[in-house]
Amino acid sequence: MTGTALPVVEIGCADVPVLKERGQREVFCGLTGIVWLHRKMQDAFFLVVGSRTCAHLIQSAAGVMIFAEPRFATAILGDRDLAGLADCNEELDRVVRQLLGRRPDISTLFLVGSCPSEVIKLDLSRAAQRLSTEYRGRVRILSYSGSGIETTFTQGEDACLRALVPEMPAASTASPALLVAGTLADVVEDQFSRLFQELGIGPVQFFPPRRAAQLPSVGPGTQVLLAQPFLNETARALQARGATLLEAPYPLGVEGTTAWLRAAATAFHVAPERFASAIAGPAQRARSALARYRGDLEGKRVFFFPDSQLEIPLARFLARECGVSLLEVGTPYLDRTLVAAELPLLPRTTLSEGQDVEKQLDRCVAQRPDLTVCGLGLANPLEARGLRTKWSIELVFSPIQGFDQAADLAELFARPMQRAARLRV
Question: How close are the terminal C-alpha atoms of the chain, in Å?
Fold first, then answer.
């Protein structure tokens, strides 16, 4: 598309040796994904089979008020369950029966595994099959693991969507259709829908949908555009259903959103002139809004701890559009297929995969970055050492994709700088 192509940096990170670390990790568990998934799929319910700690984690992360009736709950595993003195399957059946009796609006029920349920080898997939037979025609019952034993917290969404892929109806024809995969805030989804309409791209469906009972179809004509970089298993499951994965940067910032939309426009043969006309207004407004924060960020040195798997596209945005200098970009897992379009755009820097938290803390403290992007567990210790931090989980909870959110994304990083400047005065 003329006039809108992203220039590749002189030496990108496509061939940078990756520092692979396998040691102590500091991350949230995959149960955290329920916080945004239950808000998106408004007829789904997430029943965590876990401990009181699991219940406290989700309740505090979601910030649900005591008089609200959320679409998640925890079936508490007590001492008798953990000791094998009670039949966990009978107890689970009882809880599900009670839940569905109270909440007849549920169309899809997810049984979500946790560290405790996996430690006692409770087979939730078989439980889901058994309960699906019992409640056939009434509710769809699926299972996935939200355990934090071997995963990072955004993989909870990947596991959830992967469980839904086999339930997606087969596309009736092989005609081209666009499927945007990855949870987006409703306002962002609406913005993208309008842009796709302006481009003449359609039909367009979003996965997950706002109602879990209305899953989009998938087949050989489906073009998949990922909105999130952590959907490894979901992407492969969609490809196994015949879909084609479009290679694109992620829609963070003006450049990333432009390139993301261009990938769809190219696949659907949109004329360059139409593409340029459709994005011109939103892109210019985004650039003007973004300029307000560049002064706070330009020249600042940033260090990314591995946490959300958003680190690489976020680092690309900060370096290319906000003028920051990258000290290290860590990510829990580096799937080169999913970030193939991001790495050539990322200025040369240290890339690390996995975590050995003590070693990374030593490197971070030695370099004294102006801003450290990290998990909640590391933020307070780093602040105590005089380092400014940004919680990476806030970047997952916030609407940050698209043109209209580019300035909001920059502001999230600028706030710690602004706060430090006020404190110095």
Answer: 48
Picking from 256, 111, 134, 246, the residue whose alpha carbon sits closest to that of residue 180 is 246
Quick check: bond before 203 cis, omega within 30? yes
The CATH code of the domain that includes 49 is 3.40.50.1980
Q: Which residues pair with 225 in a beta bridge?
A: 180
pLDDT digits (tens, 9 = 90+) for 180-227: 999 999 999 999 999 999 999 999 999 999 999 999 999 999 999 999
Residue type for 147, please?
S
> Using CA of residue 300, residue 306, residue 307, residue 310, what is the dihedral sign?
positive
Domain boundaries, position 401: 18-25+284-424
- The first and second tokens of residue 335, run together, are 């799937």
DSSP state, 67?
T
What own/partner pairs with CB < 8 Å and gap ≥ 24 does 248-252 have? 248/341, 249/6, 249/313, 249/316, 249/341, 249/342, 249/345, 250/226, 250/313, 250/342, 250/401, 251/192, 251/227, 251/401, 251/402, 252/313, 252/314, 252/316, 252/317, 252/400, 252/401, 252/406, 252/409
> Residue type at 2?
T
- The CA angle 160-36-98, to the nearest 5 degrees, is 70
pTM tops 0.85, yes or no = yes
Q: Please tell me whether residue 328 adopts helix, strand or coil conformation.
A: strand
The string of pLDDT tens digits covering residues 304-336 is: 999 999 999 999 999 999 999 999 999 999 999
Domain termination site, one of 136, 151, 166: 151
**What average pLDDT does the segment 141-148 reach?**
91
CB-side exposure of 91: number of CA atoms within 13 Å? 17
CA atoms within 13 A on the CB side of 204: 23
Enter the tokens of residue 102: 């109270």
- Cβ burial 262-277 (10 Å sphere, 16+ → b, else e): bbbbebbebeeeebee
